[in-house]
Write a structure and sequence with these properties.
Layout: H1 13-23, H2 34-40, E1 44-45, H3 51-59, H4 65-73, E2 77-81, E3 87-91, H5 92-101, H6 103-109, H7 122-135, H8 140-150, H9 156-166, E4 169-171, E5 186-188, H10 189-193, H11 204-214, H12 219-226, H13 232-238, E6 243-246, E7 252-255, E8 271-273, E9 299-300, E10 303-304, E11 306-310, E12 313-322, E13 326-333, H14 339-356, E14 361-368, E15 373-376
Parallel strand pairs: 13-14
Antiparallel strand pairs: 1-3, 2-3, 2-4, 4-5, 6-7, 8-11, 9-10, 11-12, 12-13, 14-15
Helix pairs in contact: 7-9, 8-9
Length: 377
């Protein structure tokens, strides 16, 4: 971590928490459209189909899954690998600019697969892959099998990874649509959106957008979110138009001068967030959201649990089970919830079910999420 000896004001953990929640639309629900919210948040992590819908249900007033699904169907938003080599839901404009921004990182990713690509002409692989997926969308299996015809001695996985890293491949619908999702089929962003990608932009504008959605933040925080390195010089270039603070450990934090920084005692209602929500993954130091006592408790092996926020911090995990007749949210608090907190959590969970489920009856239960057992409460 980069520390500073300057006299910049210190922001407490709770002040950082409230500032970030405000920008993440989690202090109060926003009236933005789904597309505008995706743009403001600079994308939503989307390793699975449902998390972007859950993320917006927690953040937007009046949101329905059909709204995001319609934006995806009309290609206003798309699913593509961008930051941290992870699938994100982005607006079409961001898809065509952010992917070029992180392209160098995707090229470096290929280094780990170099032994499986001996003798493979990557430029030729890129051209062949583009022709294949633009002729018709292909699954990774189909793409891999076609590339093996050209390079039968190459590692099949490495071939498909090379195509994914070299090309901006989007997942075509119906993948990602609410209630209609199919298998992953890919084509290029340019082909799907009917316009070319933009040249790789200078990262300055993206730094400013990151601060608007996740700040105040350090250089390492931004690098963690983007999966990029060597951003210190960008922050230094932007320093004259930014303000600086320190966290309680002396790490320098940058921010936009007019960005909201609410008081530490600002109320933060309970929120139910999806697995892999960017709120929990976009800072090198996650203590602004996850206390040291609960660090690592939202993960089980390689799987992330959906998380419960109480008073702005992670205080538990949750699970949704649905059948034709009933939808049940099971909540596992990490500590003891007071009666008012428990009532507020039940109210929030009930609201989420009303948005996300069409089952005729709902139930909220408190129990052990990991073991799959629950008790009514």
């Amino acid at each position: 971590m980069t520390k500073t000896t300057s006299t910049a004001p210190v922001l407490s953990v709770r002040e950082l928490n409230r500032a970030t929640l405000d920008r993440q639309l989690l202090l109060r629900r926003a009236t933005l459209s789904a597309t505008d919210a995706v743009e403001h948040l600079v994308g939503l992590q989307a390793q699975n189909v449902k998390p972007p819908y859950y993320a917006l249900a927690a953040r937007l007033d009046g949101f329905t899954p059909a709204e995001l699904s319609a934006a995806m169907d009309t290609r206003e938003v798309v699913r593509i690998v961008t930051m941290r080599s992870t699938i994100h839901t982005h607006t079409a404009d961001d898809c065509l600019t952010l992917r070029p921004l992180v392209q160098a990182a995707r090229e470096r990713e290929l280094y780990g697969f170099r032994h499986g690509l001996v003798g493979v002409d990557l430029d030729r692989l890129t051209a062949i892959s583009r022709e294949l997926v633009e002729t018709e969308p292909r699954t990774l299996k189909q793409l891999r099998e076609a590339l093996l015809v050209e390079w039968p001695d190459a590692d099949p996985l490495a071939l498909s990874i090379a195509a994914r890293c070299r090309l901006p491949l989007v997942q075509v619908t119906p993948r990602g649509l609410w209630g209609r999702s199919g298998q992953v089929a890919l084509t290029t962003a340019e082909h799907w959106l009917g316009r070319p990608s933009e040249p790789a932009p200078a990262p300055d504008a993206t730094v400013l957008r990151y601060l608007a959605a996740f700040g105040p933040a350090s250089v390492r925080d931004m690098q963690t979110w983007a999966g990029l390195t060597r951003l210190r010089e960008v922050f230094e270039r932007l320093r004259p138009q930014l303000v600086t603070f320190r966290d309680e450990h002396g790490v320098e934090l940058f921010d936009l001068p007019d960005a909201p920084r609410p008081d530490a005692d600002t109320p933060a209602p309970p929120r139910l967030l999806p697995e892999f929500d960017n709120l929990l993954l976009s800072h090198a130091d996650r203590s602004r959201v996850v206390s040291a006592a609960y660090k690592g408790r939202t993960w089980q092996g390689n799987q992330a649990h959906r998380t419960l926020l109480v008073d702005g911090f992670v205080e538990g995990v949750w699970r949704l089970d649905e059948s034709r007749d009933e939808a049940v949210i099971t909540i596992e608090p990490f500590g003891t919830l007071g009666k008012r907190q428990r009532d507020d959590v039940v109210e929030e969970a009930t609201r989420m079910l009303s948005v996300l489920s069409e089952a005729p009856s709902y139930d909220i239960r408190f129990g052990t999420v990991r073991s799959g057992t629950a008790v009514r409460g």
